Amino acid sequence: MSTNMKMTDIDNAKLEEAMQAYVDEQVKEKLVQLVFALQDTKLFVPAMPAQKNGGFQPYVVKNSQGDLYMPAFTSIKKFPAGQKYMGMLKMPYKHCVSMLLDSPTLVQGIVLNPYADNLMLKTQMLELSRKAEAMAKPKAYSVKTEDFHMVVRHNAEFRIIPEKLFSQKLEFVKSLSEETLCELYKKPYADVGQADKFPYKEDSFEMMELSIRDDLSILQITAPAQNLRQTNCRELYIAWNPLTEQMGYYTIEKGLESEGKKFYLNVFKEDGTWKKLEEAPADGNIISRVMELFGGES
Length: 298
Known about the structure:
- The chain is an alpha+beta fold.
- It is built from eight helices and 13 strands.
């Protein structure tokens, strides 16, 4: 089977953008974006007949250091010109990860688009992406550990809230209250039958809405002080233009344990990406900084 075979392509545009962003700037924020971009994607995996069970097994390639990698392609256009494979499997990324992590193998990881981008995802990266999948799907976690509190909260503040905000816009803003916020954070616990382990109450959240101008309002949400761990947010800021429904979402995130007691200001975009901008301003200057950032967006 050659690479000019007729087959339905895969839309991996967001993944390819995240790959390029990480190649251009190999920093933690870009790595995190890449990890989440990989979730729920499919890849083309070259395959050959397996000798034992009559099925197919993936090809492997060797890098200049002699390490073995499983090649995978994000789209048909990334296939190497003139290269022929006996077969081509369209596989979910998480299945590729399982093949390499769940059984003994000499393969060191996955190489994405080896003849174009040549981005190597080593075993440590595959393990990290598996943890990210669990973060996105809290049912896979047990609420018996403190890590569950951290993961569920991070998932609410970094994924669920911005997704709802940018998709529903003013409708979502109008629906927000201490009660609805509390329910949003509580849902993952209820989903795994552990609602009684939910650590917050409605009065754990505080909200203050500021109508600054006809074209600018800001909602400040103070998140629970309880279980505020690394990557969790102390405050959330939603800015919007009531005339155009332009939305902005900003968070004050607690840094990693290795960073001490630092907090950071993050900005989220409508395309699902986010960026850690800077160390958080002093309390009295945060709203001014949010106004400045929102005013600069188009």
